[in-house]
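thread from #wetlab-drylab

HS: before we spend reagent money on co-crystallization trials with 6-O-phosphono-alpha-D-glucopyranose, can we at least see a predicted complex? here's what I'd submit
DV: go for it
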Amino acid sequence: MCGIVGYTGREDASPVLLDGLRRLEYRGYDSAGIVVAQGGTFTLAKSSGHVARLDELTRGGRDLPGNIGLGHTRWATHGQPTDTNAHPHISDGGKIAVVHNGIIENYARLREFLRSKGMSFQSQTDTEVATNLIAYFYAESGDILSAVASAARRMEGSYALGIMCEDMPGTLIATRRENPLVLGFGDGCNYLASDVAAILLHTRRVIRLADFEIAALTADSVTLYTGELDKLEREPETIEWDVSAAEKGGYEHFMIKEIMEQPEVVRKTLSPRIRNGEIILDGAEITDEYIRALSRIYIVACGSASYAGVVGKYSIEKLARIPAEVVFASEFRYCDPVLNANTLVICVSQSGTTADTIAAMREAKARGAKVLSIVNVVGSTIAEESDWTLYTWAGPEICVASTKGYSTQLALLYVLALRFARAKNTLSDAQFSEAVAALLVLPDKMEETLGLREELQYLASQYFSRDDMYYIGRGTDYALCLEACLKLKEISYIHSEAFAAGEMKHGPIALINRERETLVVAVATNRGLVDKTVSNIIELCSRGARVITVTTQSARTVIEGNDDIRGETVAVSDFYEAFLPSLAIIPLQFFAYYTALALGRDIDKPRNLAKSVTVE
Ligand code: G6P
């Protein structure tokens, strides 16, 4: 939610900032802006719309010369995505420039206070309040570091801030609370960014700023301070991510690239966790005693991560026989969950910075439960604050709609289910070995499933112009429908809903329209449930629906041989049933992708969305 990048060095800052912003657009793309300083004087360019527009406006940054600057790409919270509300913001009096990611919750009170001191505001944003607050303290103390520290003490909410002061040419100041900020170490230059992806082209040596810390960066130095301005020493870490992981690598969109990467990243995620036929939880050394004493598991997450959680719930209950419940993180605190030392809360988050999931994690800990998190971004807030963290090794996921993030989350949820099953002896040795063997071949089976790409491209070309599409399934097939339906609506904007197949007759079947030949996607991979789902499909077809059925090779004939079913069939391999969702999601991802492509949508950056949602 909003991307920040900063550069101080000897080269022109603008091209570095624009390139960084392009890589951060997944965090928001309502508007973009850069501020560059030359000899202490700020030059500013900002505009609503994507970074490409800013790039055009500034002629690739050539119109803004200067060796130090800050850039921002916005997901609007306070005030519409207009040019005026775009960041950077310049303080009343012009001395301070600020870019911000997060929400200053007490901005209204602070703005009143600053107005009473004679300061004026141009925009509707909370960021301009932070900017003027820093300027106010700077006017008092004449010291930018102490001004930032004083402002930080008065701001409630969350923020990552990049700050420049006209009186300190060559220095960038950064601080954060609950929003990510990394400092990058270059050769004769230094960087700051919301995410390493923005600066990976220039450096792999980074420091992740912790909450309340303040950093001062010049071309030749990075100095770290506590919130009380005591100096800190910390060695940079080296980022292992391959730079090409954050590039499109010849694909038209990040989404299709990330779909195609799934077998490889699932392999990376699974392989360190399986040793000699046993499950190893690196980063989560949970004892058998703790697992045996568990009375309930809550899986808490948002968006796709929560739908991965629904598959996880089925796996954990089926394989380990521990009651599991999935709760949207945004609802967790309000449903007054029953938590104690025998409750485990599993937080699932690709970014590790989703505000609602962070809040739920803290609530769970405060109420005495342990938290195990499944996270992709190393060192993120959720990863750092959980009792145990298991990383998905998906690499950077750039497309706003999650695909490889979701698949690696599924893989780790299977791993957990098996670890719990082992501790609780709910599977015989033979059953356990069968499951582990299936996990080992899962990446190969996913690879094979990628072969369905063209078939789904064709189906999308047949149906992309529909106004509505519905998804139905039972059990894990239903869990999959939730994710498939989300994929379709977020990138194609087609109205779509997912229903438990058996619920159709209790209301939703009224949506089936014979004249419009309503399209339904049915998922029927679960051996024991195929016949029941087929009955539901027939009920829909007899009311005029057309149905694309995603099933397994062995069940395909049952569906294709049934004259009452009108539509097409897509088949994945027969496989270990609890892990079949990892195969069946692939054609559904392709379908969403090619439908959106046929509609000419902005697939990697769908309207109104952002990848990292750091507001509640
Ligand atoms: C946003 C993204 C979704 C994502 C959700 C949860 O809404 O657009 O793709 O599933 O946040 O994000 P997380 O980083 O916590 O998995």
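DV: Residues 254-427 form a domain with the Rossmann fold fold (CATH 3.40.50.10490).
HS: ok that's useful, forwarding to the group
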